[in-house]
Amino acid sequence: MDQGLDTLKNMAHDMNEKLDRQVPLMDEIDAKVDKAAADLKSTNVILKDTVNQLRSSQNVCIDIVLLCIVLASGNCCLFILCSEEVKQ
Fold first, then answer.
1. DSSP assignment, residue 88?
2. What does the pLDDT look like over 38-88, one tens digit per residue?
């Protein structure tokens, strides 16, 4: 029985040593993950701003095109009405 307890004690001691060696590695990994998360958050903010700028400029272009279409349609209607009045 003493031999079994000694074996368990040695195993526990070996496991403790391995854990002690792994703690600094896990701390390093944790720091790298935190830095990556902060970088990702920063990149997302920049990307969001870029998308909003592109979207707003596209909306201006769409507004200009729609305004041209409305003005052209109004001009056509006016031309048709004026030409019918001249015929009468």
1. -
2. 999 999 899 888 877 777 767 778 888 889 999 999 888 888 888 776 665
CA distance 43 to 49: 10
Q: Angle at Cα 4 formed by Cα 3 and Cα 10, nearest 5°?
A: 90
Residue at token pair 């403790």 = 16
The position carrying tokens 């279409």 is 69
pTM higher than 0.90, yes or no? no
Between CA 49 and CA 56 the distance in angstroms is 11
Residue of 46, 66, 70, 68 whose CA lies nearest to 58: 66
**What beta strand segments (E) does the chain contain?**
none
Residue at 82: amino acid letter: C
DSSP code of residue 55: H
Compute CA distances 48 → 12, 34, 37, 57, whole Å: 52, 21, 16, 14
